[in-house]
Design goal:
There is one protein chain. By secondary structure, the protein is mainly alpha-helical. It has 3 domains: 191 residues, Growth Hormone, Chain: A; 51 residues; 211 residues, Growth Hormone, Chain: A, CATH 1.20.1250. Helix content is 77%, strand content 0%. It contains 18 helices and no strands. α1 packs antiparallel against α2, α1 runs parallel beside α7 and α4 packs antiparallel against α9. The chain is globular, with a radius of gyration of 21 Å. It starts with a helix and ends in a 20-residue tail after the last helix.
Length: 462
Amino acid sequence: MTRDQRVILTIAILASFVAFLDGSVINVALPAIRDELGGGLSTQQWVVDAYLITLGSLILLAGSLSDVFGRIVILRTGLIAFGIVSLLIAIAPTAELVIVLRGFQGIAGALLVPSSLALIMSTFRGAAQARAVGQWTAWTSAAFIVGPLLGGIFVDLISWRLVFAINVLPIAVTLWMLVVLGHKDERKKDTRIDYLGAVLGIVGLGGPVFALIEQGNYGWGSPAVFVPFVVGLVSLAAFVWWQQRAAQPMLPLDLFRQRNFSVGNVATLFIYGGLSLGGFIVVVYLQEVAGFGATQAALAFLPSSIAIIVLSSYFGALSGKYGPRLFMTIGPLLASIGYVTFLSMQESVNYFTQVLPGVVLFSVGMSITVAPLTSAILGAISAQQAGIGSAVNNAVSRIASLVTVALVGVIVVGALNVENFHRVVLVTAALLFSGAVVSFVGIRNSGHAEDEPTSAAPIIAP
């Protein structure tokens, strides 16, 4: 690598690491936020989903913003905004303010990951690009190990507020490296920003999510619930209609004409929905009902992060040899069985006999799934479409997280207890199983586009 390539790769890794670190740590901090600032399960849902609403809605728009204003400008803006909002969350006096600020943090986060990958794609070519993306994947995946562990230690020994304040250090280093790089931005001419699509997307996601979370407080018959729900659904329909007519849409619907791309994203919706729902409820349950400390709860899923980092490339290579269908079927099935084993958990939980076996099954299942899933989706489209294809898949995974975490309020009746926990576990297992069925029925091993796509890395939704 040249000096500039090394600097750009480091910038891309650090910028993405910030966004992934914040996403991976939040579940561990939720009980502590509730204890200090008040609120029940719906407050905890909103702390997660306020971030995901804006992130999932705007991650596709970030590509257009980078083209119009320049990738480095957008990346710098996202970093500064993320740092400022993180500090404001760290000193927020109320749960309501934390939720509002998390929404703004999601806007900033939406600018980071696509711009980081775009810098890599525009700087590296051929085999060097594949190696750079591989290094980006390995280092950013470390956020899913470091994040929960650091968060647990901060919550147990100091305060949940440090979980957000710690973002300032890597952001400051990244901003300094952008100055050292000294590159001028490249901007594309005749690029339009789909503002209407962005607004429709935010309203379309936000309305139903608000209704799902708040129905437990107001009931489905309340105008405060059914009006946002209906407005959101209408906005989603209008979003699809507009994307068919917009000159430069946020979501190019033509991509979904490729079978493996469309089926793979449906599988993503189920699999990553289950991943987020299960991760949310298990970590919260272990702390609030089973009496685990934040660090202990954070370590519960540590084997899954390690397994995905270590085994994903191996199963990715096997998928390239034998096709993705078998792996996309077996992987979610094993993960589903892993969650079924959590039904043995009661108010008193033994980690080694009631948690670890299920985590191991889940870890192996996700390791088998992640790389073949990404390969199937991006292998169905051309190299020229790889950037937007990866962005669409990342947006789908975030939206899956958003919707399933919002569903917790529908599944859980009253306070979180053993019975409610088991109910959520069964829904999680059903989502993962559905991902396996969709993959088995819909994925084709010969669903590749004529042009081999540029390498792109899976983003594991927190």
